[in-house]
Amino acid sequence: MSFVFDQAKPIAIGCDHAGLEYKDALVKWLTGKGFQVKDFGTYSADSVDYPDFTHPTASSVEKGEAAFGILLCGSANGVAITANKHQGIRAGLSWQNDVAELIRKHNDANMICIPARFVAYALAEQMVEIFMNTPFEGGRHATRVGKIACT
Questions:
Q1: Using one digit for the tens of pLDDT, what is the confidence trace for 12-29?
Q2: Catalytic center residues
Q3: Going by fewer Cβ within 10 Å, which terminus of the chain is more open, N or C?
Q4: Where are the domains of the chain?
Q5: What is the pTM assigned to this prediction?
Q6: Secondary structure E strands in 31-89
Q7: How far is CA 46 from CA 40, 51, 112, in A?
Q8: What are the backbone dihedrals phi and psi of residue 124, each rounded to the nearest 5 degrees, phi first?
Q9: Residue 111 contacts residue 58 (beta carbons within 8 Å)
């Protein structure tokens, strides 16, 4: 099922300690633009385990409670691996604008994972903006996306 950004639903966001600064800034930026945001934490710079925050964030997207999700950690690999354990999640790791566009266009990603230790904050904002505004292309990509699930 193709993900379409439903502005009536909140945006789910979560992170570990390495992504905290960016998460807090993205929440402020998104709410300032009039979006609802559901913040799944973490809420302090104390060291935490990323799955503890990834699973609830991904579950909210998977259940349809959130329009899409944003996850942040140092490399974004841990949160992407964890989120993709959820059958209804297609979490894409993005480190540049072209990748943010392609994970939507070609992979129908419903979560964007951002490596906070490797991208500038301004780029994180740009990638989220692109992710939100890029539709899934469908066609041959829909066939491929349809083969991802292990059911």
A1: 999 999 999 999 999 999
A2: 73, 106
A3: C
A4: 11-145
A5: 0.95
A6: 37-39, 69-73
A7: 15, 15, 23
A8: -60, -45
A9: yes
